[in-house]
């Protein structure tokens, strides 16, 4: 198997993993109201009362 093909498949795996990871993090933040994504973006953790 040529190295170019191995690199191609590994990069697609990394891209798909990243997209699924971000989707699941955003979905978890919205569904459970954990405010994790908001803290990552803004840099401040918001405490719910």
Q: Your description of this structure?
A:
This protein is an all-alpha fold and 49 residues long. The protein has a domain at 20-49. The protein has 2 helices and no strands. The chain has helices spanning 3-32, 36-42. It is elongated and about 55 Å long. The mean pLDDT is 90.
In short:
The chain has 49 residues and is mainly α. It is 76% helix and 0% strand. It has a domain of 30 residues.
Write down the Rg.
Answer: 17 Å
Straight-line distance between termini = 57 Å
Shape: elongated
* Number of DSSP strand runs: 0
Low-confidence stretches: none
Mean pLDDT: 90
Helix content: over 70%
- What structural class should be given to the helix and strand makeup? mainly alpha
How many helical elements? Answer: 2
Order of helices and strands: HH
- Major sheet: size, sense and barrel closure? none
Question: Into which percentage range does the β-strand content fall?
Answer: under 5%
Q: Main traits of this protein?
A:
mainly alpha, 49 residues, single chain
What is the strand and helix layout of this fold?
Elements: H1 3-32, H2 36-42
